[in-house]
Amino acid sequence: MRKPRRNGKILAVVIIGVIVIFGAGIGLGIVTGKKVQNSQKVTSDDAAGKEEQDKDSVTQKGDGKKDGGKDDGTKDSPKDNAGDNFQDQAGGNGSSKESSQDNPDESVSTYDSSASADDTAIHRYEYIKSDCTWTEAFQECINRGGYLARINSSEEYEYIRKEISKSGMTNVFFRIGGRRDSNSKDYYWVNQDNRLFGEKLNSDDSWCADEWKNGEPSFKDGSLEELYMDLFFYDGEKRFVWNDVPDDMLAAEPAYSGSLGYICEYE
Question: Could you give the CA distance from residue 205 to residue 213 in angstroms, rounded to a whole number?
Fold first, then answer.
């Protein structure tokens, strides 16, 4: 009778062990499943967060373009600056027409075809010795109430030559009120606005065609541009002559220091 009882105990122990093992397996499976679910949830949340960040980034970029393509902390693009520069040039300090008046070296023509012809009367003249540029002489005559001399007849020119000789200033190179545009080889007198007008002074048909120094105007001296006019007594030809010269003669040839001047005309 003891044998069967012992077998029963063994069976009971085995059954209990199986139950314990089975229960532990179920518990481990539940815990593992929860960890997997949590891991998947975290991964899913990370992906969703990244997607949201990408959307925000795209939205910010889009807003930046709407605002002119500028992000906080960044500079304008070269294209934006180019547009601003273009507006500054087009609508800034005066039009191109005004610029060409102030700077006759501009390639834009400054000839005023609507201006009436200059008179041929003999006026009052002032002979000033000064180491200045043609541009400075032009402005100085206006400041004095006159203008850089314009010679319109052989009678007027003879009067001026005689006055220079009487004053003992035959060694002075006088600036007079004629010039050309850099894109042209035609010389004219200029008005008080520094615009060309009247007849062409270096034309074969002009009254003054023979008043130019032989071989002048030459338009250039080597690479030096000559746009302006002066008159002086030339020993080589024993007469007063006209010549084309650069604006700043001293910069071209310092030896002219002390022998430059200009003629102001007053009506």
Answer: 16
pLDDT tens digits, one per residue of 192-250: 999 999 999 999 999 999 999 999 999 999 999 999 999 999 999 999 999 999 999 99
DSSP strands (E only) in the chain = 124-129, 147-148, 173-179, 188-190, 196-197, 220-221, 224-225, 228-234, 239-245, 260-266
| Cross-strand partners of 266 | 124
What confidence tier does 103 reach under pLDDT thresholds 50, 70, 90? low
Within 8 A by CB and 6+ apart from 2, the residues are none
Torsion of CA 115, 193, 126, 187, to 10 degrees: -60
Q: What is the pTM of this model?
A: 0.62
CA gap 1, 187 in Å, rounded: 149
Q: How many Cβ atoms sit within 10 Å of the Cβ of residue 124?
A: 9
CA angle centred on 108, ends 102 and 111, rounded to 5°: 75
